[in-house]
Amino acid sequence: MAAAGAAAALPAEWIKNWEKSGKSEFLQLCRNLSENTTFKGIQQALYELAYHVVKGNLKHDQASNVLNDVIEFRDDMPSILADVFCVLDIETSCLEEKSKRDQFMQLVLACLYLVSDTILKERLDPETLESLGLIKQSQQFNQKSVKIKTKLFYKQQKFNLLREENEGYAKLIAELGQDLSGNITSELILENIKSLIGCFNLDPNRVLDIILEVYECRPEYDEFFVPLIESYMYMCEPQTLCHILGFKFKFYQEPNGETPVSLYRVAAVLLQHNLIELEDLYVHLLPVDNAILEEHKREIGEAKQIVRKLTMVVLSSEKTEEKEKEKEKEEEKTEKPPDNQKLGLLEAMLKIGDWQHAQSIMDQMPPFYATSHKPIAVALCQLLHVMIEPLYRRVGVPKGAKGTPIPSLQNKRAPKQVETFEDLRKEVFNMLCYLGPHLSHDPILFAKVVRLGKASMKEYQSDGGKQEDKEKVELLFSCLLSITDQVLLPSLSLMDCNACMSEELWGMFKTFPYQHRYRLYGQWKNETYNSHPLLVKVKAQTIDRAKYIMKRLTKENVKPSGRQIGKLSHSNPTILFDYILSQIQKYDNLITPVVDSLKYLTSLNYDVLAYCIIEALANPEKERMKHDDTTISSWLQSLASFCGAVFRKYPIELAGLLQYVANQLKAGKSFDLLILKEVVQKMAGIEITEEMTMEQLEAMTGGEQLKAEGGYFGQIRNTKKSSQRLKDALLDHDLALPLCLLMAQQRNGVIFQEGGEKHLKLVGKLYDQCHDTLVQFGGFLASNLSTEDYIKRVPSIDVLCNEFHTPHDAAFFLSRPMYAHHISSKYDELKKAEKGNKQQQKVHKYITSCEIVMAPVHDAVISLHLPKVWDDISPQFYATFWSLTMYDLAVPHSSYEREVNKLKVQMKAIDDNQEMPPNKKKKEKERCTALQDKLLEEEKKQSEHVQRVLQRLKLEKDNWLLAKSTKNETITKFLQLCIFPRCIFSAIDAVYCARFVELVHQQKTPNFSTLLCYDRVFSDIIYTVASCTENEASRYGRFLCCMLDTVTRWHSDRAIYEKECGSYPGFLTILRATGFDGGNKADQLDYENFRHVVHKWHYKLTKASVHCLETGEYTHIRNILIVLTKILPWYPKVVNLGQALEKRVHKICQEEKEKRPDLYALAMGYSGQLKSRKHFMVPENDFHHKDPPTRNAVPTTAQNGPGGAGLPPSLTINAAKLEESTTEETDKLKEKSQGAVKVINKAANATPKVTTSNGNSASNSKVIKEKDDKEKCGKEKDKEKKEKTPAATPEAKALGKDGKEKPKEERANKEDKARDIKEKTPKSEKEKEKAKREEKSSKEDKSKVIVTNAESKLAAEKEREKEPSRERDVTKDVKSKDNLRGGEKMPIAGSLKSPVSRSEASDSEREQKRRKIDTHSSPSHSSTVKDNLSELKDSSAKHYINHSTPTLSKSKEREEDKKDLDKSRERSREREKKDEKERKDRKRDHSNSDREVPQDSTKRRKEENGTTGSSKHSKSESPSDSPHSNEKEKEKNKSKSSSKEKGDSIKVEKMEKSSSGSKKESRHDKEKMEKKEKRESTGGKEEKKHHKSSDKHR
Predict the structure, then answer these.
(1) Greatest Cα pair distance in the chain
(2) Would you say the pTM of this structure is higher than 0.90?
(3) Which of 331, 447, 1297, 1373 could make an SS bond with 1211 (beta carbons 3.0 to 4.6 A apart)?
(4) pLDDT-based confidence at 1482, cuts 50/70/90?
(5) What are the tens digits of pLDDT across the range 1294-1320?
(6) Tens of pLDDT along 876-900?
(7) How confident is the model at residue 84 (pLDDT cuts 50, 70, 90)?
(8) How many C-beta neighbours within 10 Å does residue 1172 have?
(9) What is the C-alpha to C-alpha distance for residues 1185 and 1422, in angstroms, rounded to an integer?
(10) Chain-wide mean pLDDT for the chain?
(11) Cβ 1526 vs Cβ 1507: under 8 Å
(12) Out of 196-200, 1120-1124, 1410-1414, least confident range
């Protein structure tokens, strides 16, 4: 590369022709190049020349000659030449060719005279110098040069000490320390300093150091020193200032060194003015960042250690030692706080307002590490005070407060003060986030920030401007929430208890929606406390303190403990309440003292408490059921109870809790309704309990004042404010209607969705809880919402039911207050419009207002049911029933009187009280008087209202029941759609239903059969009872109790009966007639027959009760015991029924004692009460005459089956109606019957068709025909029975009555009925043919029987003439008896256990009717059930025989009757004993055959039929279940019924056999045989006995 360069500048021709022209050319070139200022060109030329020499192209002497000439061209030429030699020296020393190196050496030697030795020694290598001979030894030369360099550069002559140049430095300090207040400027001083440096040779670095030190001492002169330093720095290197500062900081980093504040300040100011860089200075400061991180981790570890210690159980001896150790450690810590220069600098920056650099230092440390040091926190707070001052003065200062104004920083580079909320968000909020929990050091700043937050929220809420503004405001709000979460709440936790701060914070919080507040509390409780070691410690200490307080909390020390709780709660409410709630969940006896002790809380704390309660309720780890899965957990019950108490006593916002319950319901969870129930109960004073006494219940039917005084257990006073709060919360958050609808829907959800795997008992509890809460909540809304509010919120009934799918009962429950409000407001309007004061006008206006309000309701309800429903009951009737309440129907005068008397007693007690001060006496008396006046006024108001309502009902009643089908169907619809759904809705509704039925009766409502209605209610209670929940059973019991109350009143006195029922259409026995003329006394049920009916009802209740008690099913037993307890005042009234019940209940007590203690408790309770009522019970003879006039003989023998047991002839009410309706009904009910259990089918095969038993034709032939029908058409009959059995369901009870159609009706409608029956019984052609065949065969049968029984027939005919009613009963009896024959054995137990209640009932009823009729030798229920048994059998036999004869002329019959009766009396007395024995034997046979049947069916049989099913008559027998008692009864009966019985029993046995397997034809044959046997065995005695009994009846 060098050669190439040389060649380029020194052409080869010059070298070749060196001597000729080359030399001169070269010299010329050099001369030209040397004229340039730079020496680069000449250097290049000389280098090339020398290089040619090294290569050997030119001789060294030639070169030296030329160089000699060239050297003169420039003064520095020797130096340039020396440089060239230096380069060549390095190059040649690297070459391997020795010749080149030699050439170079020779050249240098030749030129030595041109370049001085010193220059060469400077530049050439020592080895080269040695070979040139310029030095002796290169090694020595090297050593010498090192020594010289050291001496020159490293040996210090001066130490920069002030004393070395004391005058100069003294003058410098004088310059800097002079008074700077005049016109002295930094420029002037700087010039003087420069002069001093020059004059005294001062070290510039030391001068800078002195300037900084003087600045430290004179910090107030920033404006002088900063520009001075800035201009001085132009003379120094940029790093110098930073190094000097670093050196100063280093000086104080000794173990006990303490960096002065002034130095931090100077450094901060220089940083702020950017005279140094933070990164450069930061590395000079201690401790290093890693050490800071380690320290932070150690602090966290220590905090956790403290927590662990606090949670551990430490014995007292160890405690003291540990405390001492801890104290020692703490002392050590306080002794040696390490000097942290980074924090010192940070503090100085904050003080001068250099936020930018301060922020970058804080970013390099762990979060909140810097501000955890109080000086820094305080400095930052001070900076914030300054920044928010203008905005705070404008919007934050409370009225009337002055506050201390805060001066702004003089520093121009400090952050700007904020004027708007937008600035606040951008500048201040960020700074607050760095401060974090340590805002606690400055409560005043805390309050200011909170007030600004409050002011911003006001703006936020009022701002409805542009979209941009809205977005800004939204942003500000979200930032405010963040600040609250990260700064305000944690700071509150670290403050010493400061109630004012808590209240200030609440001032802002209450402007937030509760969702945001609760979110904040959640973060505070569950996350904030883990974010900082200090907070971890505080949490542990709070829990420790809470434990201490809670251990000592009792009712006696509520006040002092309350104060301690208050103190603790001001700062750390979440932790404290969490602990308190956990204790309450475990120990419910803490609830009262805790609630009382919470009176020292702040508003914020109450709000936090509400959140903590909701969080505790929603805890997913807690099980809501106890381990047995049948009851709700006690923790939930305790929390609910606490909720109610605390929300009532203190002004806590309810919205969150109510929304939580609504959300739970939406999610299909009903456990939490317990909370709502408690809250409403405590806050509104509305109790829901099934244990209400009748007095309370009565009071609940009055006005609001009476309810408050007499309707509840506890006198709940002062609920006005709390109920107002609850109402406001519901309305403000639109939760009133949603909660109602959710509860109404959830009732079914409990069963079908939530129920799933849960225990039946629990499902029932949840259902009850849901229902009770709905009733309670609805009651609260009704009494507290204004009319407008209510009407505005509750939609119309059709919308509720069809769109919201609310069950009808609940929908009407919610709408009812609306109708009442609406009617009263309309009424008031009309009264104001016209001033007429007459009562008549008032009533007219009231009725008008009702019509206006209810007309749309009548239209709306039509959509709720199928059109078919409205054929029987009118929408008006339906709406009236559902819209009225007990308040509208009756005035509880006795309740009003009771409460007024109580007040009078109170006033007397006040007068007598000598200790009470006079002014208090006066006040109390005034209160009592005012209350008394209110009650009397309320009573008067209600009385007027009830009068108006009754007038309205009187006008409406004629359009109520349309009865387009039958009365029976009407009653079915009425019970199904009105009574049953409502009577189990609430206790008052239960009473209302009973009262309404009575009212409809009293109003003489057309087409309403009171008798049918009551019969339906009492006859089939098993299924209703079994399907009730516990509370529903209690309400159903109340309903039955009120119904029995009415019935018992009528039963007790003939005068009352005649007055209230005698001429009323409800007690008509003809059901076909739709009009009521009221004149025909013969069609009314007379008093004695009514008593039989009542006895039948009592019997039915007994049978149902016994059945339920014997099922072994939990629900059946529990519910029936509840119902029985409720109806105790009116049932049982008959001794033998009471005994039967007592026996069963005693059995339950024994069986369930260990297994199911709750059932045991119920049974024991009932048993005790039952025993105490024994003396009220009467023998059966006293309850109803057992031997009433003969005309009742047949009918009154009660059927004991579910159907119409013991219905009097009069109760044949249903017959006519049934005749009309059976065909329709059977069709209607066909579908239902499909589900009937096989048991029923069997029974059906055995028993007659419904229609046959219903129709009562007078002609015997028809009876026989029917009987044969049944026997012959086996399978077809089966099918029809399946279809028709259910037909009895709606009319099951009616059947009973029909079975013995009324005598009066008999006369009028005999032929009709016969026709009806013919038409209705055989439905198909085949059946008709079979019927004919049966008729013939039965006629043959009868022809055999006729002879023997002619006399008795005649007697019966005579009786019939006298008492046509009986005549018809008898025919019916015969019919049903025939039917019975078809399948007497079938015990119909099925009806009790199988699901289809009425169908089975109808079967049994049919049987019973038959049996009844059969048994009818004794007209009424036998004095004991035992008597009945035998009588039943006897009479059945007798009647069968009697009525199979063709009818003779009536006059003959009468004569024959008398004779026969006399004879039969004599004979019966003689033959009683023999008969008894025979019957005993037969009965035993029956009972044996019964035992062979599977146990289940036997049990059922026993219940329904008496042991063998021979007759259902044995009342006490069937309930008591014992064959022995049956036998006894039978013996007794035998004495009455004579040998007739034998035949009967034989017949019964045969029937049993036939029903169990054989076809009806074979049965028919057997029956013929039976008849013969009877005839032979009993002979004329039977006839006589029959006559005798008929005489008795007469």
Answers:
(1) 198
(2) no
(3) 1297
(4) low
(5) 334 344 333 333 333 444 444 443 444
(6) 888 889 988 888 888 989 888 988 8
(7) very high
(8) 10
(9) 9
(10) 75
(11) yes
(12) 1410-1414
- Asked if residues 1393 and 1560 have their Cβ atoms less than 8 Å apart, the reply is no
Q: Among all chains, which residue has been given the structure tokens 């198909």?
A: 1324
* Six-digit token string for 343: 């924090």
**Would you state the structure tokens that stand for residue 1558, as one six-digit string?**
């054989």
- Closest by Cα among 1214, 1202, 1126 to 1169: 1126
Residues 1415/1526, Cβ–Cβ less than 8 Å: no
The residues near 719 (Cβ < 8 Å, ≥ 6 apart) are 648, 683, 684, 685
pLDDT in tens, 1416-1461: 333 333 333 334 434 334 434 434 333 433 333 444 455 555 556 6
Helix (H) or strand (E) holding 597: helix 591-597
Q: Which two tokens stand for residue 205?
A: 């670095």
- Give dist(CA 951, CA 591) in Å, integer: 52
| Cα atoms in the Cβ-side hemisphere of radius 13 Å centred on 1263 | 31
Query: Would you say 680 and 777 are in contact if contact means Cβ atoms under 8 Å apart?
Result: yes
Which residues have a Cβ under 8 Å from the Cβ of 1333 and sit 6 or more positions away?
Answer: 1268, 1272
Confidence at residue 1273, expressed as pLDDT on a 0 to 100 scale: 40
Residue 556 and residue 887: Cα distance in Å, rounded? 45
In angstroms, the CA 229 to CA 274 distance is 12
From first CA to last CA, the distance across the chain in angstroms is 162
3-state secondary structure of 1068: strand
Token pair for residue 1?
């590369």
Contacts 24+ apart (CB under 8 A), 230-233: 230/273, 230/275, 231/186, 231/187, 231/190, 232/190, 232/193, 232/207, 232/208, 233/275
Give the model's pLDDT for residue 1455. Answer: 54
Q: What is the pLDDT of residues 129-187, one digit of tens each?
A: 888 888 888 889 889 888 988 888 887 666 777 777 889 999 999 999 998 888 889 99
Look-up of token digits 């909170």:
450
- Give the residue from 296, 414, 267 showing the smallest Cα distance to 354: 414
In Å, how far from its chain's centre is CA 1503? Answer: 44
Distance of alpha carbon 801 from alpha carbon 977, whole angstroms:
14
CA distance 172 to 195: 10
Segment 1098-1104 shows an average pLDDT of 91
| Residue 1096 CB burial class (10 angstroms; 0-12, 13-18, ≥19) | buried
Q: Give 345's contacts (C-beta < 8 A, 6+ positions apart).
A: 264, 267, 268, 281, 285, 361
pLDDT for 337: 56
Amino acid at the residue 836: G
For residue 1303, is the peptide bond before it cis, meaning its omega torsion is within 30 degrees of 0? no
pLDDT of residue 182: 81
Residue 67 has pLDDT above 80, yes or no: yes
The residue written with tokens 């030795």 in the block is 117
For 977-1022, the DSSP string reads IIIHHHHTT-HHHHHHHHHHHHHHHHTT-TT--HHHHHHHHHH-HH
Residues contacting 1063, CB < 8 A, separation 6+: 1078, 1081, 1084
Q: What is the mean pLDDT of residues 1213-1232?
A: 38
CA dist., res. 1161 & res. 826, Å (int): 52
Per-residue pLDDT band at 328 (split at 50, 70, 90): low
Q: Which one, of 742, 848, 727, 849, lies nearest residue 790 by Cα? A: 727
Q: So what's the pLDDT on residue 1459?
A: 59
Q: CA 1369, CA 1361: separation in Å to the nearest integer?
A: 13
The 3-state DSSP class for residue 647 equals helix
Q: Please, are residues 127 and 140 in contact by the beta-carbon 8 Å criterion?
A: no
Stretch (H or E) spanning 828: helix 808-833
Q: In this structure, are residues 389 and 417 in contact, taking their beta carbons and an 8 Å threshold?
A: yes
User: What is the spatial distance between Cα 487 and Cα 493, in angstroms, rounded to a whole number?
Assistant: 10
Burial 1495-1533 (b: 16+ CB within 10 A, else e): eebbbbbbbbbbbbbbbbbbbbbbbbbebebbbbbbbbb
